[in-house]
Amino acid sequence: MLLSREQVKNRLKDINKWKLEGEEITSSLEFKDFKHSVVFVNKVANEAEKMDHHPDILISYNKVKLKLMTHSEGGLTDKDFDLAEKINRLL
After folding, report:
1. pTM for the complete prediction?
2. CATH of region 5-90, choose from 3.30.2130.10, 3.90.650.10, 3.30.1360.20, 3.40.800.10
3. Which residues, other chains included, contact 52 with Cβ-Cβ below 8 Å and sequence gap of 6+?
């Protein structure tokens, strides 16, 4: 079920490193080098597979940008925030 704008704002207060961009929540992270970026992305991939919910991931050397939105629902749902919380725990 899609979250209202108010619900999205409230959920964002509970997760660090994430912000609303359009209809997605995003996080931009920086790591020591490319290898550390890829190790982190692989951990994210494992969590995403377990949840059957997959973020868009952009890697640029030591920078990783993650984007979450439930495409099948056309916006943000609890699944997006649940995965964002799991991703934060991987840091």
Report:
1. 0.94
2. 3.30.1360.20
3. none
Secondary structure in 3-state letters for 35-75: HHHHHHHHHHHHHHHHHCCCCEEEEECCEEEEEECECCCCE
Rounded to whole angstroms, the Cα distance separating 38 from 36 reads 5
Q: Which neighbouring-strand residues pair with 25?
A: 20, 68
Tell me the C-alpha distance between 39 and 16, whole Å: 21
pLDDT over 90, % of the chain: 100
Q: Where are the domains of the chain?
A: 5-90
42-67: pLDDT as tens digits: 999 999 999 999 999 999 999 999 99
Average the pLDDT over 76-83 and give the result: 98
